[in-house]
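Extended Data, panel c. Modelled sequence:
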Amino acid sequence: MNEGYEGYTVGQYLADRLHQLGLEHLFSIAGDYSIEWLNRYITPSGIKIIEEVNEVTAGYAADGYARLKGIGALCVTYSAGALCAVNAVAGAYVEMVPLVLINGTPSIKKTITIEQTGFSAHHFISGRETDLQSFEHITVAAIRVDNPDLAPTLIDYALTQCISERRPVYIELLQDMVDLACEPPAGALKPARILSDETSLEQSLAKICGELESAEHPLIWVGVEIDRLGLQEKAMSLIQQLNVPFVTQLMSKAVLSEDDALFVGVLDGQASSTVVTDLARRADFILALGVWLTDINSLGWSPDFDKTAFASMDAVKFGTYFGGQVALEHLIEGVLTRKIAPKVRNLPPKPTRGAMTVSTADEITYEGFYNFIQQYIDTNTIVGSDASMNYFGSLLLDVPGPGGFIVQSSYSSIGYIAPAATGVCLAKRPDQRVMVFSGDGGFQMTAQCLSTQTRFGLNPIIFVINNGVYAVEQWLADSTVFYTEKPFYESCILHPWNYSKLSEVFGCQGWKVGTYGELKGAVAGALANSISPSIIQVLVPGKSIPDNAEWKTQ
């Protein structure tokens, strides 16, 4: 051990830096290359270890946690563990989520022995770069801590990149580095400065402010970067100063309160309400703040690029104009400074869910389920939706609490939302309740999340919409199946599970419902259950889909 550092170690350094950044929970899978760091440094720290059941659910949980806390982390073991987490890290990269993956790695001596003699060790693939190279394409920093003197610099670089870029980083922590001495942390880590090109910024502001001043019917389209960059208050100030109506996307739904008088709805192509699409068509200028265009966020509809200014990805795009290196924060601040005079707006009435006129004995439909569930969503509810037909159902829900909607709709990894609820439950306020909607196909991929949630006394309400098929995959491939006698693709048909009975396996609570009366009773029971997850298996006909998904079947 090096002298002069009073016993301070590399393992302690990493634990302290994570705690300083606000991490209170670390998701982990036991592995011999990482277990000593967890036992010696995380267990006695202020960070609680959440022992997960596999690396994918751990990654999704850390992702959900990071969306609320500003940073999330998981610790795995080399190759067999780390490579299992690739999909979760890739999703966090695409969705701009600050995630730290700590990969316990074979020692230097063991690595050299493998490389030079061929005497291999478990989990090892080829050379020392295998895992590192796998992750460097889906992270903003990938480091290998194999020298105690360089460890502080490397760790600080990776974590600073994480909180600056709001994207995942990868840290290889060699098992023989953990107890070696190093310098203690100096100061606190903070995000790198936001930079804009002054000429581009001024030109962009001139164009946008000119349009806002002359437009008779402007519209603001709030995108996901408003959330990821922490610009909610500034965006709301701008909207209120201009007195301009605003809409969001599915992936930015409820970033700002949907109870605000200027909020109209979610603009997501033909899945949107007619009130929203009519407003977008009538608008003579649309300012899209932090909006990302994806096929899930357009859905059969293309924006009018000649009247829409996109301020995102550090640039402004408006018709043929392009302004590079324009930070979204600086642009919003610049428009606020100009103090453009507000105009009187005649806002259309907000779209609302259809009133329930069903009998308690009626069979549940996809559309009917979402009309029914609206009554249980208030300002303290965090709603989540998985990649499934639930995207359509949840898109039109009224979610009044700012930050009250979680979705991974850009990367759209089926099976994300139920394990993500683990992290959301740990990161939320005590007065909030988590309610997520999963398809049955997605839930089959990550059902083990119930184990972790039960173990730690978490109480999300997980609705599994049980139609027996990968409905959204069928819809994407051939939607005519839903209004004809044509059969589902064989590859879209699921093996049936009795999902509610999983509660007996994992020790939580479960219900199976097929009518609205049964659904009402199940929701009441789930809301009363505060000590474990509740799984509600909702039976719907295989060819039942939400109304706002029917445009593709016509």
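Residues 79 and 125 are 7 Å apart (CA to CA). This feature is highlighted in the accompanying rendering.
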